[in-house]
Structure prediction request, 183 residues.
Amino acid sequence: MACNLTLGRKEPCKDVVGGIKKIYLINFEPLTLTEVSGEVTDIADAAGTADVDAVVYEVRHASSLTTNINSSRETGTTFFESTLELTFKKLSQEDNAELAIMAHGRPHIVVVDNNDNRMIVGHEYGCEVTGGTLVTGNAMGDLSGYTLTFTAQERTLPKFMDNALTEATFEALLGTVTEGTNS
Prediction:
């Protein structure tokens, strides 16, 4: 296998910001991803015949995605470990039940960052909940809510979705998209 470099990189403009807007959680099943020029343009089930359903969580402020490259010369392996740190504000019995389902599953997660990039995390093997908290806070201004850590180990970096897709077009690709309430 040739491992020849194909592209350089100049210092980019300072026109981006950090953070995550929202995430789409898709129940685990083998996915068929259609890619054009390295970007995902369609998502379907393994048979490629049906749309996949998703639930949406808004996670503005205090949520992040980090992907570490793990490469070993000794074993000849390289894999990518993504860690998604999420903060959900406000405690509720309904959220307790749903977060327990998340902890038992291994969903695929589409992350939408504050630059409107969409990336699929755990596209092949899914994302595992590897930690989290339910916290009431101590002082009046402290978080009363949840923190959740998802981890995915994949053969490739998270895949970017086609940026030409509008939010409505992207959601139409998925099938049924269930939004939460802001109780």
